[in-house]
Amino acid sequence: MPTRYSESDPPFTECFSAIFSESRKFQKHEDEGLGESEPPLIDLGNLRGKNEKERQACIEAITKASLQWGFFQVVNHGISHELLAQMRREQKKVFEIPFEKKVNSRFLNDCYRWGTPTATSLEQFSWSEAFQFPIGNISGEDCFSREFSSLREVMEKLANAMSELAGILAKILAENLGYRGHNFPENSSKNTCFLRLNHYPKCTFSPKTFGLTPHTDSDFLTILHQDEVGGLHMMKDFKWVAVKPNPNALIVNIGDLFQGWSNDIYKSVIHKVVANENVDRYSIAYFLCPSYESMIGSCKEPSVYKNFTFGEYRNQVEIDVKENGQKVGLSRFLR
């Protein structure tokens, strides 16, 4: 007999009642006086143009933004607005499926995530749900039933487009530090790159509840398409700033692996999502990762970090989250 849940979807407060019963002790995030900010906006059309001076200026803008911000926005990125709009429509449909079906039936190859099972306090809890797909699984016949054939078709197109864009940007940043290989990161695998569909339901429960707790990304590079609602905050100069939504732009941010490989030249920036009290928020994220066996290493010696594989890094993150309620990250691998 299926488990019965409340009408809220997902049932955050019912299933995590021990956390939410302590909500009165929860202090608001220190966001008073928070202003909106626009990370550098870069026109990638100049990368494909014939004017070499404009192309070099674009490359310099990408590297400068990565050095100074770790976050930047791109327009004329080659991914059609129509494809992004199709993805958003399919995304909303899949999140409207009843919670019991999403959580109980290995729906879409068991890629559904919600809340924070390891959280012991509200500060560790994320008021959100997501479908996270390894790129290699999207084309698998056993992952999508006929009911979701249109979702698979759109996801395949978007994953391919974002993979191409992420590869171009990552190679530019690696070449800036002296890398001369054909592809970067080497041994990148469709089985370890991910496409994640995020949904942040409106949250009237507690003002300033995290939609996604403060974190860095455990990859080389992330490409994000967010809607017009807002709620994404990033750490800049030791202060939180809200990233102003731009419907025409994609957001790109440096991940932990790029910081490690670059010997801390590029920085993996702490960011979070604050849930909205009045309206739902949606976003789509692509994570560029190598194979689990890939040695991260560094672009030059002496290295700030010990050598580690992506698999070792992922395993350590999982251990830390389970034991401490939060990720520790790169500091675990300092020499």
TrEMBL record:
<protein>
    <recommendedName>
        <fullName>Fe2OG dioxygenase domain-containing protein</fullName>
    </recommendedName>
</protein>
<dbReference type="InterPro" id="IPR005123">
    <property type="entry name" value="Oxoglu/Fe-dep_dioxygenase_dom"/>
</dbReference>
<dbReference type="Pfam" id="PF14226">
    <property type="entry name" value="DIOX_N"/>
</dbReference>
<dbReference type="GO" id="GO:0046872">
    <property type="term" value="F:metal ion binding"/>
</dbReference>
<dbReference type="InterPro" id="IPR050231">
    <property type="entry name" value="Iron_ascorbate_oxido_reductase"/>
</dbReference>
<dbReference type="InterPro" id="IPR044861">
    <property type="entry name" value="IPNS-like_FE2OG_OXY"/>
</dbReference>
<dbReference type="Pfam" id="PF03171">
    <property type="entry name" value="2OG-FeII_Oxy"/>
</dbReference>
<comment type="similarity">
    <text>Belongs to the iron/ascorbate-dependent oxidoreductase family.</text>
</comment>
<dbReference type="InterPro" id="IPR026992">
    <property type="entry name" value="DIOX_N"/>
</dbReference>
<dbReference type="InterPro" id="IPR027443">
    <property type="entry name" value="IPNS-like_sf"/>
</dbReference>
<keyword id="KW-0560">Oxidoreductase</keyword>
<dbReference type="GO" id="GO:0016491">
    <property type="term" value="F:oxidoreductase activity"/>
</dbReference>
<keyword id="KW-0408">Iron</keyword>
<feature type="domain" description="Fe2OG dioxygenase">
    <location>
        <begin position="189"/>
        <end position="290"/>
    </location>
</feature>
<feature type="region of interest" description="Disordered">
    <location>
        <begin position="27"/>
        <end position="46"/>
    </location>
</feature>
<keyword id="KW-0479">Metal-binding</keyword>
